[in-house]
Amino acid sequence: MLRKSGVIAAATALVALAVTASAIARPTAASAVSASGLCKSAGLGFGGPLSGGAAFLGDDQRNWMRLFISYWNGGKPIPGVPKGMKRVHLTDAFDGDGQLNGQVAATVAAQMVSNPKILGVVGFAGTNENLGGAPVLIRGGLAMISGSATGDQLTDGKTLKKGYFFRVVPNNSVQAKLGVKYMLTKIGVAKGNKVMIVDDAEAYAIGIADAAQAGLKAAGVTVDRESQDQKNTDYSSLAQKAVAEGVKVVYAPNQIASDSQLFAQQLKAAGYRGAFFATDGSYDNTSFTFSGAYVSFFATDIYQLASVHSIVHDFAAKYGKTTPFGAPSWVAAQAIAMAIATSCSDGKTSRAEVRKDIAKVSMPKSLLGHPIKFTANGDVATGGVTIFQIQPNGTYKLVSAG
Amino acid sequence: MHALIALIPSYERTWSYLFGQVVAGLTLGSLYALLALGYSMVYGILKLLNFAHGDVYMIGSYIGYFVLSAFGGSLNPSIPTLLLILLMFGAGMLGPGLLGVVIERFAYRPLRRAPRIAPLISALGVSFFLQQTAVLLFGSIPKSYNTFSLHNGVLFNTITIGALRVQYVQLVVVCSALALMVALSLLVSRTQVGKAMRATSVDLEAATMMGIDVDRVIVFTFFVGSALAGAAGVMNGLVYQNVNPYVGFQAGLKAFTAAVVGGIGNIRGAMVGGLIIGLAQTLTSGFLSSTFQDLIVFVILIAFMLFRPSGVLGAAAIQKV
Predict the structure, then answer these.
(1) A35-170+303-370 — its CATH code?
(2) In the prediction, which pLDDT does A203 show?
(3) The two domains A35-170+303-370 and A173-297+386-401 share their CATH topology (first three levels equal)
(4) Which chain A residues are Cβ-neighbours of B140 within 8 angstroms?
(5) Which of A56, A225, A238 sits opposite B285 (nearest CB)?
(6) How far is residue B285's CA from residue A241's CA, in Å, rounded to a whole number?
(7) How do residues A195-237 score in pLDDT, each as one tens digit?
């Protein structure tokens, strides 16, 4: 009996070991697709939140990618794509629901890697997702371009291997720097004043908050650094603290615009008279409409760009209203598409070739209203951060273009 | 001693600041207390931790929102504010109450004689089911009560008595919660059905043998507990505005902690536990840092589990030898 149990236990352990080994083994393509075949039809993967609290964001980004694919395949004019460029047919090969969660993103990344048709990934949307999913994509040789992940660590050369992760929006440091500069020069924060910085305990917000804190401290401003999880929506305690401390600005990077609205309202109810400054995560003129508040954003509102009205109109007709986070994914998809087209000039391509060509992509103009080029570490070399102030009627007025 | 006091920032040494944080804590704690009551009542009778309870609270929050929207929303209400709030509470309690009955009938009753783990897993399943159903039906974008706009934010006007400043909405929440808790206490201690509930919680089989219809008692318990959760959901919307399909998870966790701290199965303990957790959260945020507000709640839970598992008002279990 004991011997039989021992044999069963040993067999179970061996099976478990084999399963574990295969799970952590380098993910590879399930079957070979010829390099020339990919130049006839190539796939793009998408990574972002398609369920959960941020699903509206992921849906929007995926829809912009799909609209781009339809324009690209249909031969329609696209800002920044040279007229003579030979376009390779693209498909939306896989929609990876990362749920803004690193562990979930790693799972969908493995699925994308194992699909040999996929030559590049639009995404992941969130910094957290990239921290989990990007290493898996990198092991599979896939490049990714994000339209919204702004965490500084993604392009520091240490967290992720260089040459695989790119983004078409400025990183947190750029946004925080501009926010600090605005606070010091326009809002009137001076040496000796106090600023309260509240992050939402997620990688995105912590990154911006850290950068802003460093900038303010360097300017001699006292910083009260706080952290409140997105699931805790009671800001009344912090609001009272802000009033009691006499802070001049509450700087609150947050990925949920309605939470920023709530925080600003609770500050007002507590008697706060200083400024409220949110970041791109809260850029939403339907949910965050607190008069007088400031919002920094990593792109221009495309509704305000006359040159791309027709594309925006097409999007609205097909998918409805868009958020400001959607359009950068079009540009991300475009960069991958242009890289595939370039690498297919000799009739064959591979993930490695596409990756190298992404780094060389140069768009003289883009849907975002400015040229697109990448730096050596994958950041976008062009484009700046803008700051808006919310007006009494809820509209966003541009007050600074960095 | 003076040196220690000097370390505390000057603004934290004022009575008004302390009162402000206490009032915020009592407001939050009232929500947790109402939620914790549901946990305690169900545990007391069925020895079941109803993990779907937080999501019933979420549904109550949504019902309140839809009633508000049906009567013009906060910007343009078509009926007086007081009547509107009463209707929100009414619907926000009735809907979840009925939902609780349905959940008990289909998710827990068939498993009443199964091993304890089975209804627990069923409860988790119901929780996910409610969350995802809410995502499908209402979307994942948060809805806002926007009560700051209701009659020019009248709910957020303050009453000042010396160093004490209280917003009307905080007063509404605390007084409503207190009234509901008192009503529940009276129901349990002074009525026939309350007597039946107490008997069932002591010994379900004996209660059956004594002629008590335990199924009906259990259904009633679920109805009342879920109605209280729904009321807490509406209060969440009035004070904290935002409703989304995941709002019940965190609140449910804290309320469960409150129920354990107060003494799981003990109704008065649930009330006390809720207030303790609410105050711990806000006082930590106000006097230490908001970074630790969740940490302190679960440290309290662990401390009670280690040193006083029966909770503040719970009685130690009698062991027969």
Answers:
(1) 3.40.50.2300
(2) 80
(3) yes
(4) 51-56
(5) A238
(6) 9
(7) 999 999 988 899 899 999 999 999 999 999 999 988 888 999 9
Q: Using CA atoms, how far apart are residues A294 and B233, in angstroms rounded to an integer?
A: 31
A52 in contact with B at a CB cutoff of 8 Å?
yes
Average confidence (pLDDT) over B156-160: 88
Q: What are the φ and ψ backbone dihedral angles of B182, each rounded to 5 degrees?
A: -65, -45
Beta strands per DSSP E along A170-289: 194-199, 222-227, 249-252, 275-278
Alpha-carbon gap: B51 to the closest alpha carbon of chain A (Å): 17
Query: How far, in Å, are A79, A92, A96, A358, B293 from residue A120 at the CA level?
Result: 20, 11, 13, 10, 42
pLDDT in tens, B298-316: 999 999 999 998 888 876 5
In angstroms, the CA B194 to CA A235 distance is 38
* Per-residue confidence (pLDDT) for residue A103, from 0 to 100: 92
Torsion angles phi and psi, residue A304, rounded to 5: -95, 0
Q: Which of A237, A259, A262 sits opposite B290 (nearest CB)?
A: A237
pLDDT surpassing 90 at residue A291? yes
Identify whether B288 is part of a domain. Answer: no
* Residue A330 · residue A64 · CB < 8 Å: yes
Per-residue pLDDT of A37-59, as tens digits, reads 899 999 999 999 998 767 888 99
Q: Provide DSSP, A268-290.
A: HHTT--SEEEE-GGG--TTT---
Cα radius of gyration (chain B): 20
Cβ neighbours of B144 in A, within 8 Å: 258, 261-262, 287
Read off the pLDDT band of A4 (50, 70, 90). Answer: low
Min Cα distance A56 → chain B (Å) is: 7
Q: How many domains does chain B have?
A: 1
Containing structural domain, residue B135 = 30-245
- Nearest residue of B to residue A59, measured between CA atoms: B140
Contact B246 A53 (CB under 8 A): yes
Burial (CB count within 10 angstroms: exposed 0-12, middle 13-18, buried 19+), residue A25? exposed
Q: How far is CA B182 from CA A299, A380, B227, B266, B271, in A?
A: 55, 61, 15, 14, 10
Task: Confirm if A132 and A99 have CB atoms less than 8 A apart.
Answer: no
Tally C-beta pairs within 8 A across A and B: 99
| pLDDT score of A29 more than 70 | no
Looking at chain A, the whole-number percentage of residues with pLDDT higher than 90 is 72
Q: Are A146 and A220 in contact (CB under 8 A)?
A: no
The three-class DSSP label of residue B127 is helix
Nearest beta carbon to residue A237 from set B14, B24, B135: B24
CA pair distance A263, B143, nearest whole angstrom: 15
Q: Which of residues 22-61 of B touch A (CB under 8 A)?
A: 24-25, 27-28
Contact indicator for A356, A143 with CB cutoff of 8 Å: no
- Binary contact (A237, B285; C-beta < 8 A): yes
Cβ neighbours around B317 below 10 Å, total? 7
Q: Indicate the fold that domain A173-297+386-401 takes in CATH.
A: Rossmann fold (3.40.50)
Query: Residue A258 is nearest to which of B24, B142, B281, comparing CB atoms?
Result: B142
Flag whether pLDDT at B267 surpasses 90. no
- Name which of B9, B24, B140 is nearest A240 (Cβ-Cβ): B24
Give how far B45 is from chain A: nearest CA, Å.
31
Structural domain spans, chain A: 35-170+303-370, 173-297+386-401
Q: Is residue B72 in some structural domain?
A: yes
